[in-house]
């Protein structure tokens, strides 16, 4: 692929099976990590990404290639074998994969590389979306997105280059399947991020932050609690969504 296209624009999309159950890991990486099979899987994924970057560097494409590494959801908390948790960890964020509202299910880091164009070592703490990939790639290719419809994504280039300090997303709507579970409001004048939850999964056990009895949290039905009024959180002060606000407290 690289040899055929290295002298002209190309788009390479790699969707890795890694860090997804059943954690298929080649023999070379089995038992290498101190963190069991999941750690082995992470190390193999890291090696695979490294091989791709090495080829880009070797072919002299490093300074002309825009790279975006991300995930489509947070760690799968319910994945386990016996007493061993196999599905990753979402840090301070509540919930995980399959949860359309809680931060642990939807908030993932993105890593970008484009030497000579994007400033190195920069950390951007702004809410963006994987929907932003499309308009970003279109802009990089010198095209224009269709004007006859509303585009949910925004180009990431101004944010990444530092010409803009705020994400283009004032609102982000978080769905679980076809059901709206939460909405995020990025208040423009203050920079505060608010989150309203209209439905949340029923955790089993309650304090676990996951749905161990079901295997994964559902989007609707008896496994979901509806909130009227919605649960409201100030993510800027409470990123782990531990303290819902009320008229009495806020």
From TrEMBL:
<feature type="domain" description="Sulfatase N-terminal">
    <location>
        <begin position="5"/>
        <end position="142"/>
    </location>
</feature>
<dbReference type="Pfam" id="PF14707">
    <property type="entry name" value="Sulfatase_C"/>
</dbReference>
<dbReference type="InterPro" id="IPR050738">
    <property type="entry name" value="Sulfatase"/>
</dbReference>
<dbReference type="InterPro" id="IPR017850">
    <property type="entry name" value="Alkaline_phosphatase_core_sf"/>
</dbReference>
<feature type="signal peptide">
    <location>
        <begin position="1"/>
        <end position="26"/>
    </location>
</feature>
<dbReference type="Pfam" id="PF00884">
    <property type="entry name" value="Sulfatase"/>
</dbReference>
<keyword id="KW-0479">Metal-binding</keyword>
<protein>
    <submittedName>
        <fullName>ARSD Arylsulfatase</fullName>
    </submittedName>
</protein>
<comment type="similarity">
    <text>Belongs to the sulfatase family.</text>
</comment>
<dbReference type="GO" id="GO:0046872">
    <property type="term" value="F:metal ion binding"/>
</dbReference>
<keyword id="KW-0732">Signal</keyword>
<keyword id="KW-0106">Calcium</keyword>
<dbReference type="GO" id="GO:0004065">
    <property type="term" value="F:arylsulfatase activity"/>
</dbReference>
<dbReference type="GO" id="GO:0005783">
    <property type="term" value="C:endoplasmic reticulum"/>
</dbReference>
<dbReference type="InterPro" id="IPR000917">
    <property type="entry name" value="Sulfatase_N"/>
</dbReference>
<keyword id="KW-0378">Hydrolase</keyword>
């Amino acid at each position: 692929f690289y040899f055929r296209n290295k002298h002209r624009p190309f788009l390479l999309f790699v969707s890795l099976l890694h860090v997804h159950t059943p954690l298929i890991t080649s023999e070379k990486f089995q038992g290498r990590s101190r963190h069991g099979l999941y750690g082995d899987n992470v190390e193999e994924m890291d090696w695979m990404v490294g091989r791709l970057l090495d080829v880009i560097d070797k072919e002299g494409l490093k300074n002309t290639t825009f790279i975006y590494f991300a995930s489509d959801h947070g760690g799968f908390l319910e994945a386990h074998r016996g007493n061993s948790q196999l599905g990753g960890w979402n840090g301070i964020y509540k919930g995980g994969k399959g949860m359309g509202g809680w931060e642990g299910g939807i908030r993932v880091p993105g890593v970008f590389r484009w030497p000579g164009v994007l400033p190195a070592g920069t950390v951007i703490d702004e809410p963006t979306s994987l929907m932003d990939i499309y308009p970003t790639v279109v802009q990089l290719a010198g095209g224009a997105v269709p004007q006859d419809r509303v585009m949910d994504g925004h180009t990431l280039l101004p944010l990444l280059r530092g010409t803009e300090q705020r994400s283009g997303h004032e609102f982000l709507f978080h769905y679980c399947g076809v059901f709206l579970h939460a909405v995020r409001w990025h208040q423009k004048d203050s920079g505060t991020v608010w989150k309203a939850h209209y439905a949340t999964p029923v955790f089993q056990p309650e304090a676990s932050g996951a749905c161990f009895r079901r295997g994964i949290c559902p989007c609707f039905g008896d496994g979901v609690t509806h909130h009227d009024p919605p649960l409201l959180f100030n993510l800027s002060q409470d990123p782990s969504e531990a303290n819902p606000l009320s008229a009495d407290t806020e």
